[in-house]
Amino acid sequence: MFHRLAAPLRAATLALLLCAPGLAAHAQERYPAKPVRFVNSFPPGGPSDLLARSVAEVLQGELKQAFVVENKPGAGGNLGAGAVAKSPADGYAVLFGIDTTFTVNPHIYGAMPFRPGELKPLMILASSGLLVGTSPSSGIASLPDLVKQAKAKRLNFSSGGSGSPGHLAIEEFQRATGLKLNHVPYKGSTPAVTAVVGSEVDGGILATPSMLPFVKAGKVTALAVTSHQRSRLAPGIATVAELGMKELEHEVLYVAMVPAATPEPVVRVLERAIADALARPDVQARMQALDLQPEAITGAAAARRLSDLSERYRQLIVATGMKVE
After folding, report:
1. Which of 82, 174, 234, 274 has a Cα-to-Cα distance from 216 of 20 to 30 A?
2. What is the CATH number of domain 35-127+252-320?
3. Quick one: which of 221, 192, 220, 223 has its CA closest to 206?
4. Per-domain residue ranges for the chain?
5. pLDDT in tens, 160-184
6. Where would I find the beta strands (DSSP E) of the chain?
7. Rounded distance, CA 153 to CA 175, Å?
8. pTM of the predicted structure, to 2 decimals
9. DSSP string spanning 116-130?
């Protein structure tokens, strides 16, 4: 009798356990089991947006679920980051943006829509440098020329806005050389480049893809790129290190972040899928067109790199008195 009841009893016990609150769902759900939002914290059409869309397209096919890119720009990436930080920590909201939201904004904004520690890096996806370019009418044809002229008079240099990568690069130039430039912030990279082309300013330190068409047309003079290696888009332009000014190296990191409490198994699925997407030849070609160098750095290494960069920028901001204008 006991043996006849043992099997049904074990089955009933198992059924009761699986019906415990939340346990059945946890046991049966496969991630992703519903559409995933990629929240891009910058406007449509920019590098972070196009990178998010390239990755979403691949993951949609590989993981058999919808990956939808949602743009939530504003306040240097703070709005998008705040939205993801307040989302459930279940892997269904992933932030795509750049490092400055986490390495610069906490030091220059009086109030933030998220707290440090509410988000953690899923992956440093890619990096890119900037291009130091001048208006031909300025007469500045090389990096030594820039230093020479900056000693003689105060030059005007544009950026895509206060706290933007270009602004940081301008401040780093001043700190490294002891020279002074007038920082002229614009509302985005496009008007900042237009200002250089139209000789409204002497030059700018801006995204290479936005400057390069004007370099090729002879409307902007390229002095150097700030990345550790030459741009794949413009291999003929030397790096600042090659020109003897390694202290001017400056890169933008493109990052994916998730709420800090996101379960590790979900993080692992996303890490593997995104790394595989970044390795695809078609995605690599799109990244090259955006002047992005694949990185695919995850976990503690990604967190450490962002932390080190945050401290570097904190020191720069304190020394220069940078603020959001």
Report:
1. 174
2. 3.40.190.150
3. 192
4. 35-127+252-320, 129-248
5. 888 889 999 999 999 989 999 999 9
6. 36-40, 67-71, 93-98, 119-134, 155-159, 181-185, 203-207, 221-225, 251-259, 293-297
7. 17
8. 0.86
9. TTSEEEEEEEEEEEE
